[in-house]
Structures are given as structure tokens and as C-alpha cells.
């Protein structure tokens, strides 16, 4: 008898309590724990990651690493991987839950499994779990052959499962893997949210990273969220799904809706206050300059002074970096109008980029929006200036002057 097929694997599984089973592998007993994965929009758990919880012969809990350290060869590898999945699926099926089950799968085992008979499809059918209910988390450790990874992914996709890339941003989980695998879900490695909690740079970059993942057609999941601050940053970054101790520890049972504390509803109010700090700083930075900026626009439209002369008062305001003018095709007419003496943000290392006479900025958001909305002030989100090292906000407006139409631009220092 094939010791790796579904029937043989099932013989290693024993009833532990009503609707609960454990598995036997050498001297270890293996049970399941399920960690909830919440949708920030639905404010409910939409899936659960299945995790193995081994115990030794004395019934003492041991690390999963200890269990997997017992693997001696290829046959053991396939056997243990299949056993864990069978235990998780059977336990999950006992809950009659229609949410996703996230299963960790070693792609090497999927490829090697061809030598040990069919298993996965039969396991799902026997437990009345539809493939569409399964999210396969591809564990990439030690898989350097892209053909192996591709073969494993295609197998589960063809079966009808969803695919998740785990630990994005760490080890081999990078954009190359996303291009090749085209997963349905991307799980950000815990190290990213930990760094975002302490690093303003990472926090600024995180929403754009999330947006890029979503633009590639993937659902963004932040894992390893353990503190309220990390939860608020996750919400601020616009991820779709969250997972971590803050939202729920792995446990034998699924979340009981009747006794569930609606953490996400509480967070929504806290996030309003959390994001208000940034919005207030943003508004203050803009409002201080907006009145004087509009006065400059009025002067320029009237043609009473040359633009350079009209900007003197505006340049004295705190945070103002530069003023410049673009024609209707986005070309800069004249140089940057700067404070004098040269401000501290003028880094000599960026001198090749500092002179912008004749530069074309037609691709920039502030130019495109100004051209689409004549006579209306446009304000960007903070972004990295090309002409120096600073983050900046750009205020712009398309105005009619006696000499023709100009897009007047004002850069504010966001650092």
C-alpha cells in the first residue's frame, strides 16, 4: 500500500474530541490551530491560516521546527507535509465555515508528490471543502528553481485554489516572484510593519508599496500585526486584509461571532484621530502659504509685475522651497525662484538636477491636474523632489497672463 496516499495518511489521524482530530508522526502528536485573517472593509474574519501544533510523547508542546527536524528524507518530507494538511482540512471542515482556509505548502513536495500518488484533490473532496475555499501559501524556502515553483503554482491554480505569496519583502519573496507566479494574495512580511512602526521613511513608503501590489491585481495582506500602532499603520497604508496577534491568536476553534469583540470598529475611530495628526500637519503646511500663493496668482494674471518680483513675500514664508513656471506643454520657463541666501535643503550633491530651465514636467501630477482644471488650485500628496533631497508638496494652478497661459508651481518642504 502507498503510505502517502489519502487513505494511508488518513490512517494516521485519530479523533481527539468531537469534530477534532490529531495526527501521528513518529513520537509526535500533531493538532491544528487557526489564526483569523480579517478584512478591514468587511470587519469580519474572511479566512484562517492553519498552523500545526505538535506535542511530544509526554504530551508537552514542542516547536514546529522540532517536528520538521525529524524529517530524514524525501519520503518523510512528503508524508509530513500531507499529514499536516489533512489534519488541518479535516478540523476546518468540522466547523462548517465558508471562509477561506490558508494552507502552507512546500512546492517541492507538490512536485515530488507525483511520485507518491494523488492526494490533495481527494483530500478536499472527502472533507467537502471546495478548492475555491482554499488559499495555498507557497513556502519558498530552498526553492531556487523557478520551474519547480511554476509547476506547483499551476497545479493549484488549475485545481481552482487561490495562491498567496508569503513573507513578501523578505528572502526570495520579491517582485520577480510576483511577476512569475501572479498570485491572488500577497502577504507582507512582518518585518515591514515592525520597521514602519519605528521608521518614518518606511511608513511613508508603505502606502505606495501596498498600492503597487493592488495595481498588479493582488489582494494586500499585512501579517504579524501585534500592536495597536501597527494596526493603525496597516489601516493607514490601505491594506485589504490583516493578520496577527493584535486581531487574534491561533487557537483550536474559529472566532465565535457571538462573543467577538469588534476590534476593527474600535480601531476605525482611533484611526480617525491617528490620521488627523498627519492631515492637520498637511493642512497647516498648505494653509500658511495658500493665501499668499493666491495673491501672487492675482498679481501675475493682472500682469502688473514680472513673476519673479511678485513672489518675494511668498518666499519669506516658512517651508517654501521654490517657485517655478511651466508653459502649456510642461516646459519650465526660467529657473527656480529660490530664497536667498541659499536654503539648507539645497544639497550640493544634487547639483546636476538643481537647474531646471527647459525641463519638461508634463508627466507630473501637479501639471496634468492643473491643465485639466484651469483656474483651480491643485495640491499634491508628499513626494520626493527630483531637484533636491527633500520630500515636498506642490501647489499649482493654470492661469491666464498677458503673455499666455502658465502653470504656476510652488514647492513646500515636507521634511
Question: What would your notes on this structure say?
Answer:
- The protein has 415 residues and is of the alpha/beta class.
- 38% of the residues lie in helices and 24% in strands.
- It contains 15 helices and 16 strands.
- The strands form two sheets. An eight-stranded mixed β-barrel has the order 3-4-5-6-7-8-9-10, surrounded by five helices.
- A hairpin with a 6-residue loop joins β14 and β15 (391-401).
- α8 packs across α10 (228-236) and α10 (228-236) packs across α11.
- The longest helix is centred in the last third of the chain and has 40 residues, at 263-302.
- The chain is elongated and about 90 Å long.
- The N and C termini lie far apart (68 Å).
- 35% of the residues are buried.
Short characterization:
With 415 residues, the protein is of the alpha/beta class.
Secondary-structure topology with pairs:
Elements: H1 6-10, E1 13-17, E2 20-25, E3 28-39, E4 44-55, H2 64-68, H3 74-93, E5 100-105, H4 107-112, H5 120-126, E6 134-138, H6 146-159, E7 162-168, H7 175-181, E8 185-188, H8 190-198, H9 200-215, E9 219-222, H10 228-236, E10 241-243, H11 263-302, H12 307-310, H13 312-315, E11 320-326, E12 337-338, H14 351-354, H15 365-372, E13 378-379, E14 383-384, E15 391-401, E16 404-413
Parallel strand pairs: 4-5, 5-6, 6-7, 7-8, 8-9, 9-10
Antiparallel strand pairs: 1-2, 2-3, 3-4, 3-10, 11-12, 11-16, 13-15, 14-15, 15-16
Helix pairs in contact: 8-9, 8-10, 10-11
